[in-house]
Amino acid sequence: MPDTQPHTHTALLVMDMQVEILSRYAHAKDFLTPMHDAISAARAALIPVIYVGVGFRPGYPEVSANNKGFGALKQRQMSGMTNMEIYPDIAPQPTDVVITKRRVSAFCGSDLDVVLRAQGITHLVLTGIATSGVVLSTLREAADKDFQLTVLSDCCFDNDEEVHRVLLSKVFPRQAEVIQASDWTEKL
């Protein structure tokens, strides 16, 4: 029997919304309201909400000195990156899935693909911080894995406003529908 609801194979990804990460972005909290609204609407529509955060074991055994970004983290031994605490205003519920990744993309070093395939998910709705980091890397990898993609533009943030604008207006539309959270929730 065919699906009667178009969103039955959809999941909302809430990426890198950890306390430690948000603390590095001065104006990031400005986008928490549309993020909260998107999460609430997804739950009401029975769309899985999947939280993805970056995390490492104590001592950072997953991090190579050759990795420019994470290698510096390892040298500083930042304890926050061993803590997966999601920002409290949008914290996961017991029914949500929480994934730990080891690199920038939500797929790299995680079991995200296994979780998505097990649930028959073919459409990903992307949100998170930073637009030029986890959102870009996950979008590219998800497109290569043949997922249908939507990016909620007001649920993404980057410290570089120009990079954020170019990604949302010129790069992402090549592989995803880019819309506001309110437009997405109206369709549910």
Describe this structure in words.
The chain has 188 residues and is α/β, with parallel strands linked by helices. It has one domain: Rossmann fold (3-Layer(aba) Sandwich). The chain contains seven helices and six strands. It has a six-stranded parallel sheet, with helices on both faces. β5, α6 and β6 form a beta-alpha-beta unit. The longest helix is centred in the last third of the chain and has 14 residues. The two termini are 21 Å apart. InterPro entries: Isochorismatase, Isochorismatase-like_dom, Isochorismatase-like_hydrls, Isochorismatase-like_sf. This is Cysteine hydrolase. Keywords: Hydrolase.
Number of strands: 6
**Count of distinct structural domains:** 1
Structural class: alpha/beta
Percent range for helical residues? 25-40%
Order the strands across the largest sheet as they lie in space. Answer: 3-2-1-4-5-6
Strand content: 15-25%
Overall residue-averaged pLDDT value: 90
The CATH fourth-level homologous superfamily: Isochorismatase-like
CATH topology group = Rossmann fold
Radius of gyration: 16 Å
Low-confidence segments, given as residue ranges, are none
Pfam family, one: Isochorismatase
Protein name: Cysteine hydrolase
InterPro entries: Isochorismatase, Isochorismatase-like_dom, Isochorismatase-like_hydrls, Isochorismatase-like_sf
Domain Isochorismatase-like: 10-181
How does the SSE layout of this entry go?
Blueprint: E1 10-15, H1 19-22, H2 32-44, E2 49-54, H3 68-76, E3 97-101, H4 112-118, E4 123-129, H5 131-144, E5 148-157, H6 161-171, E6 177-179, H7 181-186
Parallel strand pairs: 1-2, 1-4, 2-3, 4-5, 5-6
Domain Isochorismatase-like: 10-181
Keywords: Hydrolase
InterPro entries: Isochorismatase (IPR016291), Isochorismatase-like_dom (IPR000868), Isochorismatase-like_hydrls (IPR050272), Isochorismatase-like_sf (IPR036380)
